[in-house]
Amino acid sequence: MSEMFKGFFGSKPNKSPRITGGAYTVDEQDAVQALKGFPQSSVGAPMPVIFASEQSLFVVFYLELRDPNWDGKSVKVVSLDTNDEPIAVVRFKRASTHYFGPPNDEAFGGHPLAARGLKPYGAFEVLSSSWIRALERMNSVHPYHKPEHFANRRHFILTFHDTIFECVANEYSIEQPSGSLRSILPEIIASL
Fold it and tell me: Which is the most buried residue in 54, 75, 108, 147, by most CB within 10 A?
């Protein structure tokens, strides 16, 4: 491995156990906390869609809708055009980086934060995030680097059925519009 990336990817010797995977290396400081009041994504087909620019970051997905009369025998198939499912639009403000991909719910134990309380089908924040600390170290070569610019950064994780989404941002807001995922996309694109 190149000398330039040793500190960033956590390959320097360390007395504490480190768990690697994804964009960062987890150490003893990372702590996972569930986000309170975050709407529950669909556990069957949330169909998350990501929209990102250098200024804006949105995650749009279907929410869990439990039918009290469901007999457990039928399956409802949804698509981007399904109109009768509740939707969440999560806007991350001052987002600096994001990841969208594996593991899915069946390989979830492979995520480096699974042993710290990260679970499928939820919304979380990583306190004392290794990812944020790695980003700050990477930026430290900048001639005008200021560590305090990273003080308000937060590491968020949304876990879905087939993927997870992680980002570093300052904050988030949630809206729950009506319509289909496809019908709200033009408005989101316009706000990028």
Answer: 108
The reported pTM is: 0.82
CA–CA dist 62, 185 (Å, integer): 13
The structural domains of the chain, with segments of one domain joined by +, span 29-64+80-191
Contact 55, 190 (CB under 8 A): no
Residue 180 burial class via C-beta count within 10 angstroms: exposed 0-12, middle 13-18, buried 19 and up: middle
Integer Cα distance of 192 and 190 in angstroms:
6
Q: How many CA atoms lie within 13 A of 41 on its CB side?
A: 29
- With tokens 């001052």, the residue in question is 94
Query: What's the mean pLDDT in 18-44?
Result: 83
Contact status, residue 157 vs residue 118, Cβ threshold 8 Å: yes
Q: What is the 3-state secondary structure (H, E, C) of 16-67?
A: CCCEEECCEEECCCCEEEECCCCCCECCCCCCCEEEECCCCEEEEEEECCCC
Residues 52 and 4: their CA atoms lie apart, in Å, by 28
Give the pLDDT confidence of 127-141 residue by residue, as tens digits: 998 888 888 787 777
Token code pair at residue 33: 């906390």
Q: Is 111 exposed, middle or buried (0-12, 13-18, 19+ CB in 10 A)?
A: buried
